[in-house]
Amino acid sequence: MSRKRETSQMTNIVVKTALAFAIASSVALPALAEDVLRIGMTPEPYLPFGQVNAAGEWEGIEADITHALCERMQVKCEISAMAFDGLLPALKENKLDVAVGAFSITDERKQTVDFSASYYTEGTSLVGPKSEAVTVGTADAPDGSKILDPKTFEGKIVGVQASTVQHQYLTKYYPDAEVKAYDTADNSMADLAAGRIDFVLSPDLYLHTFLATPQGADFDIKAAAPDNKVLGEGVGYVVKKGDAATLKKVDDALASIKADGTLDKSIARWVDGVK
């Protein structure tokens, strides 16, 4: 058996075992050993980036590239399933070495954690019912940046996933808007489909995935949010502030899968046909 195949099989075994353990128990994973990397991922549906499917297996862009990174780093990866808003606290409390969850790279987050190089860049858009014709313009924010026109949200309820940069964007620039934050992106879309809210602000890829489903057939993109520092500069892996050794391992592995096309193939596998 080749060393590469042996490493791949061991990674699969450890990932599945750690996932089953993490879902069944709230006990923190053991402290980092020399050849073990503790990775936190969110199992809630957030395709095309990731989810745990009905068979209990990770799938999506981040599942694919995380598996590839573990092989390139030649380490055993223990993956713990956690809610999105629990990932960064767990990282800061030294319960994890790496957090994965389509985390946007922002100046605010950089104050408390470190980011790898970006592995994907996307925008943010506003989605609503096709039956409601809305023209969404832009406006100048007090900080000089361009934002979606605040008039868009007058008398409306806009949904967003909690603890995301989109949530921060709405909180920062629209203090008078009625914003409803959800624990998962899917729950925000469920309320939109049920008519309980008027809009959802979310990353583009997730929205396009939703619009391609039967549930999303009656909705469309109303506007793309202008580029903004609050919304970030791409998506990256997150490590503890000052953990230069882990960051270098992740960045080196990312550079490797970018160079040989593995990253592009993984993204294409989940993105082709979505937009």
From TrEMBL:
<dbReference type="Pfam" id="PF00497">
    <property type="entry name" value="SBP_bac_3"/>
</dbReference>
<feature type="signal peptide">
    <location>
        <begin position="1"/>
        <end position="33"/>
    </location>
</feature>
<dbReference type="InterPro" id="IPR001638">
    <property type="entry name" value="Solute-binding_3/MltF_N"/>
</dbReference>
<keyword id="KW-0732">Signal</keyword>
<protein>
    <submittedName>
        <fullName>Amino acid ABC transporter substrate-binding protein</fullName>
    </submittedName>
</protein>
<feature type="domain" description="Solute-binding protein family 3/N-terminal">
    <location>
        <begin position="36"/>
        <end position="274"/>
    </location>
</feature>
